[in-house]
Amino acid sequence: MSDDCIFCSIVDGEIPARTVTETNDVIAFLDANPLAAGHTLVIPKAHHTHLGDLPADLSAAVFEVVSDLTPRVQTAVEADAATVGINDGAAAGQEVPHVHVHIVPRFEGDGGAPIHAVAGDRPDLDDEELDAIAETIRG
Ligand code: AMP
């Protein structure tokens, strides 16, 4: 629990939310400023800022709810698809520093874009650079 975290306040019932499902460790509720009808946020109840901060079992619990809920959200609003994503860090657009997964229902012709549209200028990386990045990630 973080004292000045709005999502912790939702977990504690101090501020209202339109909860759609809840487990011991995870809660999901409608986004207050939806990008589409049915826009839902899935969060761990424990306060963690970044995806990489989550213990493995909590990460699994969050994504179990995400995978269960995504088709249910789509069906509820008769969506054609969904974009599922996390803004992980301020530079990626994270405004609430408590891990949350966005489930955004998508509709044919909704004027939106695929997840490939989120980044800025694409880098022009050659094979050596790609190999080096992969090696660094592998550690
Ligand atoms: P992000 O930019 O990824 O941190 O997204 C934060 C999301 O939280 C935004 O889509 C907001 O509309 C949403 N949000 C902020 N406050 C609330 C709230 N009290 N209840 C529901 N959603 C909220």
How much is the radius of gyration in Å?
17 Å
Q: Please give the count of helices.
A: 3
Q: Sheet with the most strands?
A: 5 strands, antiparallel
Which ligands accompany this protein? Answer: adenosine monophosphate
Question: Strand order within the widest sheet?
Answer: 1-2-3-5-4
Terminal-residue CA separation? 33 Å
- What is the H-and-E element order? HEEEHEEH
**What's the average pLDDT?**
97
Helix content: 25-40%
How would you classify the helix and strand content by structural class? alpha+beta
| Count of β-strands | 5
Which percent range describes the beta-strand content? 15-25%
What is the global morphology?
globular
Query: Which regions are unreliable across 5 or more consecutive residues at pLDDT < 50?
Result: none
List the helices and strands and how they pair.
Layout lengths: L5 H6 L7 E4 L3 E5 L9 E5 L11 H22 L3 E5 L15 E6 L20 H12 L1
Antiparallel strand pairs: 1-2, 2-3, 3-5, 4-5
Keywords:
139 residues; alpha+beta; 5-stranded antiparallel sheet; 3 helices; 5 strands; 29% helix; 18% strand; binds adenosine monophosphate
Describe this structure in words.
The protein has 139 residues and is of the alpha+beta class. Helices cover 29% and strands 18% of the residues. The protein contains 3 helices and 5 strands. The chain has a 5-stranded antiparallel beta sheet, covered by helices on one side. Strand 1 and strand 2 (26-30) form a beta hairpin. The longest helix has 22 residues, at 56-77. It is globular. The two termini are 33 Å apart. The relative contact order is 0.16. The mean pLDDT is 97. The chain binds adenosine monophosphate. Residues 6, 15, 17, 31-33, 41, 87, 93-96 line the site of adenosine monophosphate.
